[in-house]
Design goal:
The complex is a heterodimer of chains A (about 300) and B (about 220).
Chain A (H helix, E strand, L loop, with lengths): L1 E4 L4 E4 L11 H40 E6 L3 H16 L4 E6 L2 H12 L12 E7 L6 H11 L3 E4 L2 H43 L1 H9 L4 H33 L25 H24 L2
Antiparallel strand pairs in A: 1-2, 3-5, 3-6, 4-5
Chain B lengths: L1 E10 L2 E11 L4 E5 L6 H8 L7 E6 L2 E2 L5 H8 L2 E4 L11 H5 L1 H5 L6 H10 L15 H13 L5 E5 L7 H16 L3 E5 L3 H8 L4 E7 L2 E3 L6
Helix pairs in contact in B: 6-7
The chains are: A alpha+beta (about 300), B alpha/beta (about 220).
């Protein structure tokens, strides 16, 4: 038995595990590849989760809200507003309809015009925030009734721009998942190449092992164990630094754009911990296939 | 134990060995001689299924080697100890780990006392922790012999075991092989050293197999 001190844990190997020469280019290549891929995987996972949250939020928040905008001559605006509110109050599927306050309108316009907006000097339309029940309302029917009672009222149920946004967010989430799959594939490919190189470089070792009665299963297992461990340890390092990098990103706030929301929240921080296990699984499968094929070739 | 039935071996259209019919009986002691390139190593490789006969049939422990699966070949080699000309060690393992390698690959427990006794028998107790590149030619040959016998095999095949060592060490290795034969092991030594064969025949009943003109000659054992 021999104990090897690795950067983060003690790994004890038996002689059977040490039949594969321990050092060399392929060892470093495997660890570095796994670390780099795990680092990227953390970001892909964060992207996927952030866009997932975004899609859910946009989907649920916007689906429940609509706006009625009233643009009318000054002498009619009050009457049309009252008529529109009356229509909304009597529309099935409308849970609540209320006029936006001056402060709320200022808050809406602030990102475009700044905080010192003189609202009273501008001719702004009146905005009514409409909250739907879970069943929702008949948008076309409401538009017709508003046109009859308050001709200056325009219903905007957000679907026009909500759908592309939700669609974009869902596409981003899918992109994150595809990135994860690509990373897993590239990791598997790199480890296969490294394992093949190691097997080719250790043809003499394989000959010696066969001479003393080693089965192909034993030889393959020795390589698989070694490469799985290398893949796992590299992925632990990469995941660790990936999580630190994500934690150091600016946190999301109200005024923040999409990128400031990139990260994990709550229990989602546990998800990256699966990356080393998945990397080990990828390394296991890749090395197993490479070793089996190579040993079959080396008669 | 090992039977050749009209066996032959060829490679790339060239016949290296042909029409070999002989039996290596349990507990027998054989020398395999012949000029360099005659096919001594090829013959030994046929004996532990490193190579497969391209003509006729070779049976080891009653099993036709042509019918063997890869795992069966591995099992077979655990019953045959081979001392190679170039020894073939794993240079990143210590001498003691190399000697114990057949135990490791077969999943058997290693008895440190037995291992010490074995190293003592071949006179390598002091070098147990050394790596193979640090050993002399004679030490490597003795280590290879220790590795070959650690599984207590029924057959020991030695390919020019004294090729790279001085006369004194050759006699020592020969003595170890004779001791093994007295313990009931079948021993086959490929060599072209006639002095060594004469030394052995003074102590043990050894037969000589001579490869000549691609064929094994069992007659003419007296040298």
């Amino acid at each position: 038995m021999k104990t090897i001190l690795l950067p983060f844990l003690n790994f004890t190997e038996t002689t059977s595990g040490r039949v594969v020469p321990p050092s060399g280019f392929t060892a470093q290549l495997t660890v570095i590849t796994a670390a780099a891929m795990a680092f990227l995987a953390v970001f892909a996972l964060a992207l996927s989760m952030a866009t997932g949250r975004l899609a859910d939020r946009w989907g649920t928040e916007l689906a429940r809200g609509s706006t009625v905008r009233i643009s009318a001559p000054a002498d009619q605006i009050e009457a049309q507003t009252a008529a529109a509110l009356k229509v909304l109050d009597t529309t099935p599927g409308v849970r609540e309809a209320r006029l936006l306050t001056a402060e709320e309108e200022t808050a809406l316009l602030e990102p475009w015009f700044g905080p010192d907006l003189p609202l009273d000097t501008l001719s702004l339309p009146v905005l009514i925030d409409v909250q739907e029940t879970s069943d929702g309302f008949d948008a076309e029917g409401l538009r017709l009734r508003l046109a009859g009672e308050a001709p200056g009222a325009v219903l905007d149920d957000h679907t026009r721009w909500r759908r592309p946004l939700v669609h974009a967010a869902e596409r981003l989430r899918l992109l994150g998942v595809v990135s994860l799959l690509l990373i897993a594939g590239v990791t598997g490919g790199m480890i296969t190449l490294a394992a093949n190189a190691a097997l080719a470089a250790t043809a003499q070792v394989i000959r010696t092992l066969r001479l003393v009665g080693a089965t192909d299963r034993f030889i393959a297992s020795a390589f698989v164990r070694r490469f799985t461990f290398r893949g796992f340890s590299g992925a632990v390092i990469g995941t660790f630094f990936g999580m630190i990098a994500i934690a150091l990103l600016p946190s999301a706030d109200e005024a923040g754009g999409f990128l400031t929301g990139l990260g994990f929240s709550g229990m989602q921080w546990l998800w990256p911990l699966l990356i080393p296990a998945l990397a080990a699984l990828v390394a296991f499968v890749a090395t197993r296939v490479a070793a089996t094929q190579t040993l079959r070739r080396l008669m | 134990m090992i039977e050749f039935h009209d066996a032959g071996y060829g490679y790339g259209g060239r016949e290296l060995l042909t029409e070999m019919s002989l039996t290596l009986a349990p507990g027998s002691f054989h020398f395999l001689t012949g000029p360099s390139g005659a096919g001594k190593t090829t013959f030994l490789k046929l004996c532990y299924r490193e190579l497969q006969a391209t003509a006729g049939r070779v049976s080891i422990f009653g099993e036709d080697t042509r019918q063997m699966e890869r795992d069966e070949v591995a099992e077979l080699r655990r019953r045959i100890g081979v001392v190679h000309q170039d020894c073939q060690f794993l240079d990143h393992l210590s001498l003691v780990e190399n000697v114990a390698l057949p135990l490791s690959v077969s999943g058997r427990d290693r008895d440190d006392q037995d291992l010490d006794d074995l190293l003592n028998w071949v006179g390598l107790s002091e070098q147990a922790k050394a790596r193979p590149p640090e050993l002399s030619g004679g030490e490597r040959q003795r280590a290879a012999l220790a590795r070959a016998v650690i599984m207590s095999p029924e057959i020991i095949l030695a390919d020019e075991p004294t090729g790279n060592v001085d006369w004194e060490m050759s006699l020592r290795l020969l003595q170890l092989l004779i001791e093994l034969n007295r313990m009931g092991k079948t021993v086959v030594i490929a060599t072209h050293d006639l002095h060594l064969i004469r030394q052995a025949k003074a102590q043990v009943q050894a037969r000589v197999l001579r490869i000549s003109n691609r064929r094994i000659q069992q007659s003419g054992a007296d040298l």
